[in-house]
Amino acid sequence: MMQYASLLIALPLFSAFLVPLIKRAGKKVILYYLSLVTLIQTGIAAWVFKEVYTSGNPIIVIAGGFKPPVGINLYIGHFAALFILIIAIVSFFMTVFSIKAIDVEPIDKYAMLFLLLMLGATGMIATGDIFNLFVFMEITAISAYALTGYNKTGEASEAAMKYIVLGGIGSSFFLVGIALLYGSLGTLNLAQIAMLASKINPTVAQAALTLLVFGLAVEAELFPLNAWAPDAYQASPHPVTVMFSAFVVKAGIYAMIRIVYLFKDTQAFMGILNLLLILGTLTVIIGELSALRQTNVKRMLAYSSIAQIGLIAVGFGVATPQAVDAAVFHMLNHAIVKTLMFLAVGYVAVKFGSPQIENFRGLGKRMPLTAFTITVGAISIVGIPLFNIFWSKFKLLLAALQVGKTGIVALILGASLVEAVYYFRLLHLMWFEEGKGEKVEEDLTLGIIMLLLVALIVVIGVYPDFVWGIVQKASADLYNVAQYVKNVPLLQGVSP
Amino acid sequence: MISAYYFGAISLILIGLYAVLTKRNLLKILVGLSIMETGVNLLLISVGYVSGRTAPILTEGATPQTTVDPIPQALVLTAIVIGVATTALALTVAINLYEKYKTLDIEKIRGLRG
Description:
The complex is a heterodimer.
Chain A (H helix, E strand, L loop, with lengths): L6 H16 L4 H29 L3 E4 L10 E4 L1 H24 L5 H20 L3 H19 L5 H32 L4 H7 L5 H19 L8 H7 L2 H24 L6 H25 L4 H22 L2 H32 L10 H4 L1 H15 L5 H15 L3 H27 L11 H19 L2 H15 L1 H7 L9
Antiparallel strand pairs in A: 1-2
Helix pairs in contact in A: 1-2, 1-4, 2-3, 2-4, 3-4, 3-10, 3-13, 3-19, 4-5, 4-10, 5-6, 5-10, 6-8, 6-9, 7-20, 8-10, 8-11, 9-10, 9-12, 10-12, 10-13, 11-12, 11-17, 12-13, 12-17, 13-15, 13-16, 13-18, 13-19, 15-17, 15-18, 16-17, 16-18
Chain B lengths: L3 H19 L3 H23 L22 H31 L13
């Protein structure tokens, strides 16, 4: 029964390679096929989520029947179950958006890459093997490079090239990190790495983890390897931008933290935490200040998204149970809010031709529903009470105070202040300035999706306890490495 | 005493990284990436190497004590395939950039502005 969870990997992979067979059927059929596949994926992910959260046990899939470390296992614990569900739901929403937003040919390539992007991110979160993680990361990355350049404009190609170059550097660093770990410990299995972590030379551990962190910093969009991100967000098709922000970056940062925390009881751990704090802080500061100067709203949102990831990295860098809870909560809340924001802004761009800020002047009259959803998203991101992100920022603040890190408190408050400046400027433009043009008809389906996301933002903001309970289980899955090791059925007698 | 293989691998990685960070011609940057990849692959193979042992081919007399570690070799095969895919995609994008901007100089390709 538990083996059905491997469909989360098999279904999108198989479906991706079916796309060429149906490509003659036309654009609409391909996009509806995409919707069908992602809907089924959502169903499977929802079933897995229910199984994991009701039984309290992770689902472990052992590929080919070979126990780890001889074989590769998938580990779907509370964290993976939650985020794989998010990946599936966001992907489904974006297939609906794609029907409106995608008009560049060839649609069949878009559909295949879309499914591979979903597959790669799912695999990064589910896998229990560090080299398999590399493979899934590369599937994600190559799909993302190609989708970034999909629109074929000069800007799209420029953004894709920047991403490819930085991604190539990141991949090399990551592989060298794997080489150091494998050379020292003789294993690639994440659980076994954790078991053996105390035996590794502290200097080698420090070097390996540093390389792995920088390698994953590309996918996780941390400074200094995130220079590609604003360009890629701006240039890629609108549904793809949503996927980048909602889950590709989450897969990257999850992978980073999963690996780092395997070394929780070793000497190297404190040094790596300091690295995370520094990188996260720089990411927040540079992201927020860069957002201030933007006249392209999509690009502004990209910098805002990057800054939120920096906050998440800071939370993981504090590394107390409370801080990890808050960081995971912020991952979840950010995924919801940025899905809404990039969807709404992308929709405006589809209607009016571009996401330049001029097109948002008077939007409240021209597209009132979309303007309303952007308003809710903006207010939430700033961290105002009664919206979901208030809670994750607040809990992050409390976690930092608990360990006396007042610099982080200042960072969070300062970031919110800067966010207030550029978001309220946008809100003012939308509602209080006169725009040219008449009211336009807004799509019912997209409107429903946006309102669903708004409802989720408000419900979590007003009644956070239910989701907070889920989040705490997910973060315990990440934080409690001993339990992770205990859960994985390592083959006895195999020693490196 | 660091092995000559590690030294060679690390040198290739650094040479490739230097090219990526300093060259302005797109194709030279991509060549730099390929050199980095080659260095990483050599490093992975070196990790599994043990002096005096033979190739890890299952034949009569072959045991874990007489062969080098096969796992890094398997990893490298995968990494090579991924490298080929990435390079092919990068060259496609470079062609598209050249068509749009009529140059491969990255200083002149500046369509995206903050």
